[in-house]
Amino acid sequence: MLSLQRIFWICSICLLAEGVNQAQVTAQWRGPARDGIYPDKGLLKTWPDKGPELLWSYEELGNGFGSPAVTDKQVFINGEADSTSTLFSFNLQGKLLWKVSYGKEFTGNGFASRFPGARSTPAVTGDLVYAFSGTGTLACFENQTGKNRWSRNLASEYHGACNDYGYAESPLIDGDVIYCSPGGPDAFVVAMNRFTGKTIWTSKGFGDTVSFTSPMLIQLPARKLLVTMSNHYIYALDAGSGDMLWKQYQDNVKLKQQCNTPVYADGFIYYIAGDGNGAVKLKLSPDGGSVAEVWRNPLVKNNFKGFVKLGSSIYTGDKTQKVKRIDLTTGQ
Q1: What distance in Å separates the CA atoms of residue 294 and residue 307, rounded to the nearest whole number?
Q2: Rounded to an integer, what distance in angstroms lies between the CA atom of residue 169 and that of residue 176?
Q3: Sheet holding 268-272: strands in order across?
Q4: Model pTM score
Q5: What's the whole-number mean pLDDT along residues 18-31?
Q6: CA angle 259, 264, 268 (to 5 degrees)
Q7: Please, which residues have CB within 8 angstroms of residue 219's CB and are 6 or more apart in sequence?
Q8: Mean pLDDT of 78-88
Q9: Do residues 80 and 128 make contact, with C-beta atoms less than 8 angstroms apart?
Q10: C-alpha to C-alpha distances, 117 to 64, 144, 178, 190, 304, nearest whole angstrom
């Protein structure tokens, strides 16, 4: 997350890439596989004594927390101007190419008003870029011009119910489909045609509210799964139909701040909750229709800091403000 009054900066570590070319998706939340792993080459092995060289900065994004999406030609980031959702596009030299507004941004009430602004990371594929506002507007733009192709307020159309701090999900694209979570009783998750915004399917709610978590996909021989978290569950939908396949309840949830995208590898799903169950390893059945818990470590709780799986370990920050390594076999 970036600070409230954001200064967007690029330094000479390498490009601050959220993703690189893989199939058609070129930039999105946590990279090509949504697992936080940077697959390209050229990162610095060591940093200069005075830190990486600042190449450029931009100081007019307004309030927000969202990360940038970077392609080989452009940088895209959500911002806020006068309580309005605004998508910014820069070239790699830091020149502002265009900015376009697409609805009201989250401002909050009571304690939540301390955290106004943009929340989501754009998704870029082909010649289109998609942005999601904190009040539930999903919009599609031409990435060269900023021209609006379509826009829908999912919160109002699907009677969505977000949590007290707005929508923070980063939309997920798969081929011609884009997925998003309005949180409505009859449309908790929706799949839409990404070229037109037309609804493909809706998935009914299950008595919970949407979290900040951005979904991920698992391709199995039998089916494709969409896996994500609500405030009290990790759950999986059939990505082709929206049917619920399974869900696991989060015990003792207090803060309702599930933010971390789950990770899948070698038949297992890993997730880390902000409170509730903590760090968990699930065994996914071969057909994706069920899961079984392998281990749980409730001492590792992580609201916002993300995690990565590298080799036989998980690396994560947690509420104690420390970086921790978790053994994949034992959960210790």
Answers
A1: 18
A2: 19
A3: 263-265, 268-272, 279-284, 291-297
A4: 0.92
A5: 68
A6: 115
A7: none
A8: 94
A9: no
A10: 4, 25, 23, 24, 17
